[in-house]
Design goal:
The chain is of the alpha+beta class. It contains six helices and ten strands, in the order βββαββααβαβαββαβ. Helix content is about 30%, strand content about 35%. Strands 1, 7, 8, 9 and 10 form a five-stranded antiparallel sheet that branches. It has a five-stranded antiparallel sheet with strand order 2-3-6-4-5, sandwiched between helices.
């Protein structure tokens, strides 16, 4: 069963810039993708890219923010209106993970900024050619980009005897739950799960942990936060 859209969405791996370059009629198009969490962060990335590649003629951009993609901005940066930023945005909004393609689900990529740097090669591409070039550069970059699922999670912690911690953690992982790093204290190991913030998932996690530990340990519910997990 897919995770509800309001509980999860797709993001680029944090602290990384992914790039891909294509060449069309001697013009070079370098697509750069970065994880961002605010409009200020996106504009900072755009400014840094312009400074790094100041010899290029154009630095076109598009970014999306938020679980529901409530914020989005584009820039053609000197290219004819509608030939760069908007095609890049449409590529971001339409991108689907392999699972989404297989299940015919809508794409949900967000918290991402794309900048395409163009070095003009002397041959004009026309409006259609520009649209294909800018959207294509971003699309090809996304195909190899390191993506994750960002999930709104309820934490569930279990204090375990050290002697039981490894076995129970393996059992919980095998049951399909996302396990956060275990903390080890003097008298216990604290196993923490990140469970989708939905009542049925939380109850299932409570019941499963209780069953796996034969009622020996009592899981405790914690707060709600967002966590990056492997791409669903």
């Amino acid at each position: 069963m897919p995770i509800d859209p309001n509980v999860s969405y797709t993001v680029l791996r944090a602290n990384s810039v992914h790039s891909h370059e294509i060449e069309i009629k001697k013009s070079r198009f370098l697509a750069l993708l970065s994880r961002v969490d605010s409009e200020e962060g996106a504009r900072d990335f755009i400014a840094e890219t312009k400074a790094q590649y100041r010899d290029a003629r154009h630095h076109c951009s598009a970014f999306l923010l938020g679980p529901t993609r409530e914020t989005g901005r584009t820039s053609d940066d000197g290219e004819p209106s509608g030939t760069a930023g908007m095609p890049m945005m449409q590529t971001l909004t339409s991108h689907k993970s392999p699972t989404q393609r297989e299940r015919e689900l809508e794409g949900d990529l967000s918290d991402i900024c794309a900048v395409v740097v163009r070095w003009f090669g002397g041959v004009k591409l026309g409006a259609g050619g520009l649209v294909r070039a800018y959207s294509g550069a971003v699309a090809e970059a996304l195909e190899t980009a390191p993506l994750k699922t960002r999930m709104r999670s309820r934490s569930l912690a279990v204090r375990l005897d050290h002697s039981d911690a490894g076995r129970i953690e393996d059992d919980v992982r095998t049951a399909g739950f996302t396990v956060l790093p275990t903390s080890y204290e003097a008298d216990a190991a604290v196993l923490t799960l990140a469970v989708p913030d939905r009542e049925r998932d939380v109850q299932n996690a409570l019941d499963t942990v209780t069953s796996l530990t034969a009622g020996q340990y009592t899981p405790e519910l914690g707060g709600v936060d967002w966590h990056d997990i492997p791409l669903l």
